[in-house]
Amino acid sequence: MPNRGSIHTSNDVVNVTLSVGQSKIGAGAIDRSGNEVCRLEEIVTPRESSARFAAIVQQIVAVIHEVDLQNVGYVGVSFPELVPPPRRMIADPENLSSDTNPIRDAITKLVAKELGTPMTVEVLHDAAAAVLGEVSLKGTMPGCRNCVFIVWGTGVASGIISDGRL
User: Fold this and answer.
1) What is the pLDDT of residues 129-145, one digit of tens each?
2) How far is CA 81 from the centre of its chain?
3) Where does 14-126 sit in CATH, by number?
4) CA 132, 137, 138, 144: dihedral to nearest 10 degrees?
5) Is 37 helix (H, G, I), strand (E, B) or coil?
6) CA-to-CA distance for 75 and 126, rounded, in angstroms?
7) DSSP run (H or E) holding 79
8) What are the residue ranges in the chain where pLDDT is below 70?
9) Closest Cα to residue 134, out of 109, 154, 159, 106?
10) Reduced to 3 states, what is the DSSP secondary structure of residue 94?
């Protein structure tokens, strides 16, 4: 059951956020200042790939309906599997192509089909998303320009910020 946030006007821009884990999917929305305006109850992450993508899309669409499509600026998904980083975040794109991202592409296509309109979706590995969250204004290291963040959960991963960049 969704928790309603406090969207004040139709001009308020929010970002839809999902954290896809091995066991649970959390979904919500934050405003430009990083304040939570909506949070859905976590759901169990389906094991089968097509069911997992359907659950992700269902959660994205549910949050969008809560905050109103016209208020959504961006959809961000953290994902626990190998996700090619956006080109702007990698030094040698020949080693890891970011032109196609099958996870992002599948989610983007399914969300557009469900909503009947295109939506900007970005998918990051969960460690990269975690380190970006921790150096944000609401994180544990706001404004930190150089750090290593280790995620220790079902697996172990890390995110690195160097000179303010992922």
Assistant:
1) 888 889 988 889 998 99
2) 13
3) 3.30.420.40
4) 50
5) strand
6) 15
7) strand 72-79
8) 1-11, 82-100
9) 159
10) coil
